[in-house]
Amino acid sequence: MVLKTSLFGSSASTRTVPLGKSLVQTVLVCIAYFVAARLGLAVPFTSGNVSPVWPAAGIALASVLLFGYRMWPGIALGAFLANLLSPIPHMAAAGLALGNTLAALAGAVMLRRLPRFETSLSRLIDVLQLIALGALVSPLVSATLGVATLFAAHVQAWQALPMAWVIYWLGDAMGVLLITPLLLTLSSIHAIRRERIAEVATLILLLALTCFVIFNDRLLGELKHDVLAFGVFPFVIWAATRFGINGSSFALLVIATIATLETALGSGPFAQSSPFQNSALLQVYLAVLAVSGLTLAAVVAEREQTEAERTKLIHDQAHQAVLLRDLSGRLLQMQDEERRRIARELHDSAGQTITAMGLNLSIAAASKNLSPEASKAIADTVALGEELSREIRTMSYLLHPPLLDEAGLESALQWYVSGFGERSKIKVSLQLPPRFPRLSSELEISIFRIVQEALTNIYRHSDSPTATVSIRSEGDVFRLCIEDAGKGMKVRSGLSSGSLNGTGVGLRGMQERVAQLGGTLQIQSSGTGTRIIAHFGISKAEHGSSTA
After folding, report:
1. Of 376, 382, 383, whose CA–CA distance to 360 is shortest?
2. Is the confidence at residue 547, as pLDDT, over 60?
3. Mean pLDDT, the chain, as a whole number?
């Protein structure tokens, strides 16, 4: 058998819970509430069932927030039994139980109605909502019904209605502030790493000793200055910053337990006035500690969560950058392979076809039966075919020069620079180191394409009459430099490969090729020319067949 229960106060937010599990949870809540209520009634300040600290209120609100509204029978039964064992009428015990149950349900309803309230209290807004609605507003219900019930039953709590109402309200509020955050975040205690267990033990031990020193007159004599009570603040800050809401709540519970017992025994800085004043001052003191500790822990948790999200975002962006770089490298590789295929097709297919056409036209031109006009037309066609064959051969070599595979980068650059100078009328100086080695195929193709793209840009945009291409080896680093004496380009001086946004597609292609090989690319430009510098790290294994 199952029980369908609403956890969020609306029919749209329901959850099916096995009946047996629900009964077990209800019984456990009843027992926990009963024990906490009896402890609250055992506080020496208690008068007419009005306790200055009521931890059962925190258990009631936490149980409803965690398990749902079906916990109300356990809360009501536990409250009734706890008050029934006190020297008050049965009807008064029932009235107090009703007020305590309605307060927990009201607090849960208000918090659940809020948008995006999280019981993990991982955000500052969650803690502030719990303090405002759970600790300040919902106890108004129990305080009002409870005090009205006691006075109707002629139980003279605290001798006056206003005093009783204030103590009742503050007692329930303190129970919520001290117990509810601890229970809501109890599941996160496993997140404390083993290496921090010693720190937790040290914190608890030092905090307990400090509380006994501050609130026990036998250790400090008759020194009861109120300022001494705030000596526990460093420990609250320690717990909040290092162990979050859970650690802060536990530290506050330790402080509240020792401070309440010692003050009730007439020791400490809050034992100097009447019982009512001592109780009220102690409650305000504990409230200040609780609000400060919980909000600080929430701020720290929120900041850590933001930092974690930021770190994750940076990691995801770095991962995406790696994927994009890999994709870019693959695209460049596919582009080079496609260029090689097209070059081969142009050379082997189109080139051979044009050559065959020229041979056939030559045979036709040798015929003696042609008119002079026909002979001239055939001769012109043969000449056009030869020119087209040269253009196709040049295009094929520009797409992928066979010298790059056969003789290496040095021969390919010399061929390309020579042909580029003839076609563009730009005087290009090629400076290569003596005994230029063979490099890996990928590196040779990348360097050739960078030189090709750079010289093309010089021809199209710089209006420079000269250009220089130089390669030199600096240890295990190859330095490629292409420069001109043109009008420059609109980029920042010393632009690096990581900041080429807004530049042309050609420069971006250079950047991608250099980045794929783990190198760096720099652009230096002014009104007297532009210089492109690329550095490549060369390992011994990349020297290919340099000695072959």
Report:
1. 382
2. no
3. 80
Cβ–Cβ under 8 Å, residues 215 and 259: yes
Which one is predicted more confidently, 452 or 72? 72
Tokens, residue 305: 């969560």
Query: Which residue has 């015929």 as its token pair?
Result: 367
- CA pair distance 355, 385, nearest whole angstrom: 8
Residue 548 has pLDDT above 50, yes or no: no
User: Angle at the Cα of 177 (from 174 to 179), degrees rounded to 5?
Assistant: 95
Q: Which domains does the chain have, with CATH numbers?
A: 1-184 (1.10.1760), 418-543 (3.30.565.10)
Amino acid identity, position 14: T
**Residue 161 · residue 41 · CB < 8 Å:** no
**pTM value?**
0.62
Tell me the one-letter amino acid at 211.
Answer: C
Q: Is 481 left (phi over 0), alpha (psi -120 to 50) or beta?
A: beta
In the predicted model, is pLDDT for residue 110 greater than 80?
yes
Instruction: With H, G, I as helix, E, B as strand and everything else as coil, classify residue 501.
Output: coil
Element (H, E) at 530: strand 529-537
Cα–Cα distance measured from residue 489 to residue 532, given in angstroms and rounded to the nearest whole number:
11
- Residue 311, CB-side half-sphere exposure with 13 Å CA sphere: 6
- Model pLDDT, residue 541: 39
Amino acid letter, residue 88: I
Identify the DSSP state of 490.
S
Q: Which residues pair with 18 in a beta bridge?
A: 2
List alpha helices for 216-274, DSSP H: 217-220, 233-264
pLDDT tens, residue by residue, 147-159: 888 888 877 655 6
